[in-house]
Amino acid sequence: MDLKGLEERLGHRFKQPALLQQALTHRSFSAVHNERLEFLGDSVLNLAVAHLLYDKYAKIDEGDLSRLRANLVKQQALFEIAQTISVSQYLNLGEGELKSGGFRRPSILADTMEALFGAIFLDAGFDAAAKVVRKLYEAVLAQIDPKTLGKDAKTLLQEYLQGRKIALPTYNVIATHGAAHNQEFEVECLVPKLDVRVVGMGGSRRAAEQGAAKLALEAVVALAPAAAKRARKTTRRDTQLSLPVATVQTPQADLLTPAEPAVGKTA
Amino acid sequence: MDLKGLEERLGHRFKQPALLQQALTHRSFSAVHNERLEFLGDSVLNLAVAHLLYDKYAKIDEGDLSRLRANLVKQQALFEIAQTISVSQYLNLGEGELKSGGFRRPSILADTMEALFGAIFLDAGFDAAAKVVRKLYEAVLAQIDPKTLGKDAKTLLQEYLQGRKIALPTYNVIATHGAAHNQEFEVECLVPKLDVRVVGMGGSRRAAEQGAAKLALEAVVALAPAAAKRARKTTRRDTQLSLPVATVQTPQADLLTPAEPAVGKTA
């Protein structure tokens, strides 16, 4: 297979093409596969991203730097980067993985990205690998909001309300459905000061609370037109909201029509 | 303070001495402290050790490489390295930390080591930092047994017995002492085929089981003189055994005199 296109998108021409081949080889395909390169590449990526964040955010403490890094190197982030450079078309996958669609599985693509970073590190050293990481993360880094990236919806809602001196939300389990091993929780989130009540659903109490918090955040942001645009954009990007915008109701309506609030489901 | 001695033991002369000073400065001493360098240095160390292991163990899979790395970069390992180069005498600590003996606290010394690796990385790049890591880890790396390092006593005992086709041990809680919030567990470990019965104690069932497994391992190794020397050495080093050697009893004696078996306590 012609790998020139991939090398161009990575911004690295391999001196040892065998390393590139190995990085693209899943264990289902060959005994010479990419898992050891992935082990190495995970560390390469961690250091490269740590350095980028260290330089970019001179005033951020190490706790926030760690949170940002964790979010930039996690599977979903790597999967998205793998898609931008079309890694899937170059994968060496075994018969079974091919049939079951392994070439689009996030874990396989994310692992392959790490293996590629490991391969570049072995091929040309850390600086070469860091250059590739910097190039691939350029667009992502330009967009992130260091204050919110990687925070969960409950934390974001709490910080949003605290910043406006509004009393914190309360969460109540209002129903559970299903058998013990497969329960579904319904949790309401109340922000009394703003007359917001929304209901989230999920396979655990925690998940249902997070679902409710996401909806509540949408609701309170919608109520604050001045700050709405900025905050909503931040929220959407960082928590990957794909939930319906919550309706906001008067407390009376809440009590009378419990089925009405927006319901978000979180896996 | 004259830092030449430290630079010599690190094997790195700083072009930017301010970075070295910052790496040695605890947050209790100054607003310009070492925590951001520690964040960076943690990644530097991870990659440097990953690369050393990748090169040294060409046949080990990434799961075992991860286990080895985790053990080499953990606080205790860094603390021991900090002691070999006498980092404590160079620390910049605040009044309170000085009085409470912060200069010998493992967490402070381990964090400082990471900060030093971060500082060297910024001062002269990854290869310079990796060279320092390689030098400091040389003695440690020469000694490790990749099959056992970082495995707990129960795992080691199980693998030892499996390797000799001996039936696996059983663990039973035989007594608990103390109030609910401060309980002490007594757990026996039985290897019936070898007539081994030992008792471990600990603040949790898990800790007591590990204590018992350590003693049982000592006992079964003592029973196998041929392989004893090698395995015992491995065991001592890797699980830091400081327990009395377990006595080995006949099953009858076990039942009649439950107070007799060797008792090991694990925190």
From TrEMBL, chains A, B:
Cofactor: Mg(2+)
UniProt xrefs under SMART domains: DSRM, RIBOc
Keywords: Cytoplasm, Endonuclease, Hydrolase, Magnesium, Metal-binding, mRNA processing, Nuclease, RNA-binding, rRNA processing, rRNA-binding, tRNA processing
Residue ranges of the TM segments: none
Residues at which Mg(2+) binds: E38, D111, E114
Family: Belongs to the ribonuclease III family.
Described purpose of this protein according to its UniProt entry: Digests double-stranded RNA. Involved in the processing of primary rRNA transcript to yield the immediate precursors to the large and small rRNAs (23S and 16S). Processes some mRNAs, and tRNAs when they are encoded in the rRNA operon. Processes pre-crRNA and tracrRNA of type II CRISPR loci if present in the organism.
Protein name: Ribonuclease 3
Source organism of the structure: Piscinibacterium candidicorallinum
Gene from which the chain derives: rnc
